[in-house]
Structures are given as structure tokens and as C-alpha cells.
Amino acid sequence: MSGDLKASDAKVISTEPLMLKDARWTKLVLTTYKDPLGKERTWESAERSTRPKDSPVDGVGIVAILQKTSGPELVLQKQFRPPINKVVIEVPAGLVDAGESAAESAIRELREETGYVGVAAEVSPVMFNDPGFCNTNLNMVYINVDMSLPENKDLKPELEENEFIEVFSTPLKDLYMECKRLEHEGYAIDARVGTLAEGIEVARRWKLFS
């Protein structure tokens, strides 16, 4: 994002039904199945139209950790999301390209969206975003970012012309309270960020690692 443009400058102008023939990214599906009693039922859901044939996942979410002397910080983003007409607090994320592993996709997306260059440390099991509504899935990829590297001191994101992303970071230990503060300011919290924050808070309250 260039100049003084902010994610909050965006706004929804109108909404209308989308015809299947006009949909580029998603499609609606009617599934017929049998329940445990043998009764035939149907289920309406959505699917992405972009998953590569050679990939088990649609995309990646990125837990990028900045290694700072003051303690680890998590890379976050502010991005306007038209479906909810709000700026959302997110981790960097993106769709997997054909022939690309989850780790490779995460490293590429992190560089493109934030400018940070990092090393993939771990890939999560496949996770489903909202299995009652859609089949969209992803891997969460943990990436370590060495702040002593020159490229991580002079960030050069490679955003597409329709991407308007504000990048910031917050101490990992403060993530739960930061989510509360940002929600109070009117931001929406992406489930991946919120779940990570809740996990840290659960570990703290129940002293799981003390």
C-alpha cells in the first residue's frame, strides 16, 4: 500500500445476488448424503474454485514471529474485507499456487504482503475454516523472521494493485489483550488471530507451561 491510503478508506457501495455463471472464485454446491439412521438428507455449502489439483489445501495462514531482543512479536495485518464491511485484523495469508508446498507458499506470501523474509519452521495439520458452510481449508505455517537481516530492516512488500494492507506487529504475550483493544476500536478479529490469542490466554490462565 502506498502513500497515505488506509484499509479503513474502503467501503461497501452495494450488494446483490451473484449468478453462478459470473462467479470467479467460489461456487455453491448441493450435497446429498445419508445420516447415521440411513435417512437421505441434503446440505448446501460453498467451495473455492481455485484449489490447485496437486494441492491438498486452498491456502496458508502465516504465524510469522519477529525475533526481537524485547521478546517475540507476531506479524499482523489490517485489511478491509467486503463481506463484513469491516477492516479485519489478520495474520498474513494467501492461496497456494500450483506446484507449491504450504511452506513455499507461506514464505512467498509473507514476502509479498509484508516484505519480511523468513524461514518456515513448522507446518500444521490441515485445518478447515468453517466445515458447516464450506470445504475451504489451510495449513498454518510458522515462520521465523531474523530481524538482523538487512532485508528485514528495509521492507519492500510486493502488493497487487487491489491489495491495501497495513502491516504491524504486537508482542506475542500481549496478543489476547491487543485483540480486545482492537475490537473495542471497531476492528473485526479474524478467527485465526483470535484462536491463537485464546490459546495463549488459556495456557497462561491454567499455567500449562510453568
Features:
210 residues; alpha+beta; 3 helices; globular; two-stranded antiparallel ribbon; 9-stranded mixed β-sheet; 33% strand
Question: Could you characterize what this model shows?
Answer:
The chain is α+β, with helices and mostly antiparallel strands and 210 residues long. The protein is 18% helix and 33% strand. It contains 3 helices and 11 strands, in the order ββββββαββββαβα. Strands 3, 4, 5, 6, 7, 8, 9, 10 and 11 form a 9-stranded mixed sheet that branches. Helix 2 packs across helix 3. It is globular and about 60 Å long.
Concise account of the structure shown:
With 210 residues, this protein is α+β, with helices and mostly antiparallel strands. It has three helices and eleven strands. The chain starts with 25 loop residues before the first strand and ends in a 5-residue tail after the last helix.
Which residues form runs of ≥5 with pLDDT under 50?
Answer: none
Mean pLDDT: 96
Structural class, from helix and strand content?
A: alpha+beta
Q: What share of residues are in beta strands?
A: 25-35%
Distance between the termini: 41 Å
DSSP E strands, number: 11
Sheet with most strands: 9 strands, mixed
Shape: globular
Q: What is the rounded Rg?
A: 19 Å
**Fraction of helical residues:** 10-25%
- Please work out how many helical segments DSSP would assign: 3
Q: Order of helices and strands, N to C?
A: EEEEEEHEEEEHEH
What topology does this entry show?
Elements: E1 26-34, E2 40-48, E3 59-67, E4 73-81, E5 86-90, E6 93-95, H1 102-114, E7 119-123, E8 127-128, E9 137-146, E10 165-171, H2 175-184, E11 188-189, H3 191-205
Helix pairs in contact: 2-3
